[in-house]
Amino acid sequence: MENIQILIADDEKEIRDLLKKYLEREQYQIDLAKDGEEAFQLFDRKQYHLVILDLMMPKLDGIEVCRRLRAKTNVPIMMLTAKDQEIDKLLGLGIGADDYITKPFSIHEVVARVKALLRRSFIREMDNSFLEKSSITFKDLTINLKNYTLTIAGKEIPLTAKEFELLKFLVSQPEQVFTKTQLFRNVWGSDYIEDDNTVMVHIRKLRKKIEIDPSNPKFIQTVWGIGYKFVGEMDEE
């Protein structure tokens, strides 16, 4: 999930700047809007992966912006509210926001919940496109997404559950470079790597099973200083 674009709309400059500062540390690309009207205009001109909306904004409030966005997109939306009672109001209105957080908030909680929303959105996107396929093939390598099997040149290769999930995630975006943290977050379902060798060990085991020469891999390649990518052209079904 590289080049993630996030739109933040809040009429308080301090909050906009705080969110921008911490989310940019996560390598996200951030655009800012000072009111609902500007937010909606920005959204019409650019594709975003997530939107953060303050509830009370001039021109168009967060509720109206959320309604308008939901009429045209399923992008994840997080609402910022001033008090718990407003969350009850939002839930009652059923405007379609994906998450709600009250001010004052912990910036670290916001970042964690943004990551969770993006992760769920990515998985949902995979479910709607990539995972609709029953199997995918790269040359002699065939991955069956329905029965969790891998065959190479017609021979079934046994994989552990985590090895298969790791391979499936990598092949979902060929040529996309993923850091160890990104792989751990999406395959193991956690933002914190307890053992820095976890991903490397699984990559090494996976290479031994799918590569002709694991020391010179053609499928799972290392991008030094960054992470790993899957290289291969998917065969058309």
Overall description:
- It is a single chain.
- Helix 4 links the parallel strand 4 (77-81) and strand 5 (99-102).
- A five-stranded parallel sheet has the order 2-1-3-4-5, sandwiched between helices. Strands 6-7-8-9 form a four-stranded antiparallel sheet, with no helix packed on it. Strands 10-12-11 form a three-stranded antiparallel sheet.
- It is elongated, with a radius of gyration of 21 Å.
- It has two domains: 5-129, Response regulator (Rossmann fold, 3-Layer(aba) Sandwich), CATH 3.40.50.2300; 133-230, Winged helix-like DNA-binding domain superfamily/Winged helix DNA-binding domain (Arc Repressor Mutant, subunit A), CATH 1.10.10.10.
- It contains eight helices and twelve strands.
- It is α/β, with parallel strands linked by helices and 237 residues long.
Q: Which structural class best describes the helix and strand composition?
A: alpha/beta
CATH H-level superfamily of the largest domain: Response regulator
Average pLDDT across residues? 84
Strand proportion:
15-25%
Per CATH, the architecture of the largest domain is 3-Layer(aba) Sandwich
Strand order of the largest sheet: 2-1-3-4-5
Which regions have little confidence, pLDDT < 50, spanning 5+ residues? none
Helix content range: 40-55%
Helix/strand order: EHEHEHEHEHEEEEHEHHEE
Subcellular location: Cytoplasm
Organism: Oceanobacillus sojae
DNA-binding region: 133-232
Keywords: DNA-binding, Phosphoprotein, Transcription, Transcription regulation, Two-component regulatory system
